[in-house]
């Protein structure tokens, strides 16, 4: 009888504990963890009282290391960036699904969620969640790997604004793919840099420009359906919009990533309809290789 009484008391205590509402707020958690860089930026952005308030909010908290690389001299930019890391509403890990769009505190800027089941990885605007579901009185905190950068327009906008993708921007226009890169979603573009086109050779580039149909197929080979950030990369083959060929993605653990034989350079760039991954080589699908080689051969013969 005594044992039964003790068991009942333990069950009641456990139930009471499980329904206890946290009394700490978001700022309390950050303070307890001594995340001084993040706290200072939140203070600079005028968000301290907000994140002490009733909420509910979801804070995607970047690592202190990644925040240390930010230029904090421009308060307006800091404010916009910190607001972008806070979503209205409480979203625990179980609430997050692929291509979900969360409303941030930064006006007209939504936050993209991607859930890569094959790797068990959830990314928030490309940054992997490293520690999740820190539930508090006014919301929840997820700790993410790095700083999220808001999308700078569509994939077409991102390419057009990048000073290292000028040849690609011209090629997209020549192939009449402007609307495709503006409207198609979600997509991942493996974007050859200007140096990549230089490696291909001016004769081949000019030949492609003169053959819009072939150029279109080559460019579509650089596009994969879905938003695929590097946190989700694994060695695999992915379908492309060129359809006849698949692109090979390879993850070199400590040495970076490749799309076919094109190494990825610089940071990935979020877009409102996907992501841009810059690469150092123009990729030629096997089904089109003979046609592309013929461009160079024809130019050599004509010379």
Q: Can you describe this structure?
A:
It is elongated, with a radius of gyration of 24 Å. By secondary structure, it is of the alpha+beta class. Helix 9 crosses helix 10 (202-209) and helix 10 crosses helix 12 (289-302). A hairpin with a 5-residue loop joins strand 11 (246-251) and strand 12. Mean pLDDT is 90; it is low at 4-19. The protein has a seven-stranded mixed sheet with strand order 2-1-7-6-5-4-3. The termini are far apart. The chain has helices spanning 2-18, 26-32, 36-44, 64-67, 75-84, 155-161, 166-174, 178-183, 194-200, 202-209, 212-220, 289-302; strands at residues 57-62, 86-88, 100-103, 110-116, 121-124, 127-136, 139-144, 187-192, 223-225, 236-239, 246-251, 257-259, 262-263, 269-271, 274-279. It has two domains: 21-144, Roll (FAS1 domain); 155-298, FAS1 domain (Roll), CATH 2.30.180. The protein has twelve helices and 15 strands.
CATH architecture of the largest domain: Roll
CATH superfamily of the largest domain: FAS1 domain
Element pattern in H and E: HHHEHHEEEEEEHHHEHHHEEEEEEEH
- Count of domain modules: 2
Query: Which secondary-structure class do the elements indicate?
Result: alpha+beta
Helix segment count? 12
Quick one: CATH class of the largest domain? Answer: Mainly Beta
Mean pLDDT equals: 90
How many strands in all? 15
- So what's the overall shape? elongated
Weakly predicted, low-confidence segments? 4-19
Give the strand content: 15-25%
Tell me the helix content: 25-40%
How would a textbook summarize the main sheet?
7 strands, mixed
Q: Keywords for this structure?
A:
single chain, about 300 residues, alpha+beta, FAS1 domain, 2 domains, 7-stranded mixed beta sheet, 15 strands, elongated
